[in-house]
Write a structure and sequence with these properties.
There is one protein chain. This protein is α+β, with helices and mostly antiparallel strands. The chain is built from two helices and 13 strands. It has a six-stranded mixed β-sheet. A five-stranded antiparallel β-sheet has the order 3-4-6-11-8. Strands 1-2 form a two-stranded antiparallel sheet. The protein is elongated, with a radius of gyration of 27 Å. The two termini are about 40 Å apart.
Length: about 170
């Protein structure tokens, strides 16, 4: 706090330099914090950007999943599942999502439309009728998030190792 005193006709200022230095430090910390938030937003932490899109599963794996790491409550999002040739059995491909994940989202549409959906205690299995796959194919789930916070999921093919993924849903 600055006090003004008048001594013999001159103005004499009493300054609290410690307070002024602390104030400048707080100001600099605030600028850095605002810069980091802006940088995180540009990278996709709060929406679209290079950090928001993710893929799990390797190129040699029978399954590969594309998803968004970050979403908003009641906003649309999608899971795109790439399926390699040779995973079909008896003219069917069986893709499952774990039940905990499915309870945190509302499935709006599945393309292509599954032949049927089988409910099991820990998962929902989507059965797609297919001819012998000579080329990779994809299944897309269009979803609306119904839960705030961390949403962990698994996706897999029957009798294959599942892929784990997580999404953070903002309010």
């Amino acid at each position: 706090m600055t006090k003004i005193k008048q001594v013999n006709g001159d103005i004499h200022l009493i300054q609290d330099l410690d307070y002024q230095r602390r104030s400048w430090k707080v100001q600099r910390v605030g600028w850095v914090a605002m810069g980091l938030v802006a940088l995180a937003a540009l990278l996709g932490l709060f929406g679209s950007g290079p950090l928001s899109s993710a893929t799990t599963g390797g190129k040699g794996d029978p399954l590969q999943l594309e998803y968004k790491r970050f979403g908003r409550f009641e906003a649309s999002t999608r899971l795109r599942i790439h399926i390699k040739p040779g995973v079909e059995r008896e003219g069917q491909v069986r893709v499952w999502l774990n039940r905990n994940y499915v309870e945190g989202v509302q499935i709006q549409e599945v393309i292509p439309e599954p032949e049927r959906v089988e409910a099991e205690p820990d998962r929902l299995t989507y059965v797609f009728h297919t001819a012998k796959l000579n080329q990779p194919t994809a299944v897309t789930f269009y979803l609306q998030t119904q839960q705030v916070g961390l949403l962990s999921g698994q996706v897999g093919l029957a009798e294959k190792q599942p892929l784990n993924f997580s999404q953070f849903i903002y309010p």
